[in-house]
Amino acid sequence: MPSDARLLAIADxxxxxxxxxxxxxxxxxxxxxxxxxxxxxREPEPSERTEDFAVENETLVRRVxxxxxxxQPYEHRCSKDSFDAIAWAVEEATEPFNLEDMRREADIxxxxxxxxxxxxxxxxxxxxxxxxxxxxxxxxxxxxxLIEWHALREGSPGSx
Length: 160
What we know:
The chain is built from six helices and five strands; from the N terminus they run ααβββαααββα. It has 160 residues and is an alpha+beta fold. The protein has two domains: 1-42; 43-154, Orthogonal Bundle (Arc Repressor Mutant, subunit A). Strands 1-2-3 form a three-stranded antiparallel sheet. β1 (49-56) and β2 (59-66) form a beta hairpin. The longest helix is centred in the first third of the chain and has 20 residues, at 4-23.
C-alpha cells in the first residue's frame, strides 16, 4: 500500500498536469513530474524489496527485487555522464534538496536521476534532513560520489 507521501506526490503531479492542460500549457517538466510521481508510487517500499548496484560498461545499474508476491524484478541504468551531473548538483546545492530538484538541476532523464540518487543515498553521500529532503553528508560530495562509483566498479572491499 502506498504511503501518504507517495499518494500526495502523485495527486500533486496530477493536479498540476490537469491545471496545465486547462490552461493549454503542457510542458516536458509537467510530464516528467507526473512520470516521477507514478514511478514513486509503483516502487516497492524499502522493507518490501532488495536492491543492489553494479557498474557495468561504465554504467551504474540498480537492480530491485520485490518481496515475493510484490511484483517482478527490474533494473534501471544511469550513464557515467548523468551520474556526474547528479554528483555535481549535490556538491553545489546550498539548501536541502530532493530528487526532483537534482533531476532538474542536472537536466537528465528521471530514471537515471533516480538511480544515481538512490546510490548516493545508499552509500551515505546524501542523507535525509526532513521529509523527502536531503543534504550532502559533508563537504566534497562530488569526490565522495566518485570514490563510491570507483569502489563499486573495482569491487573494493567494503563495496556492496
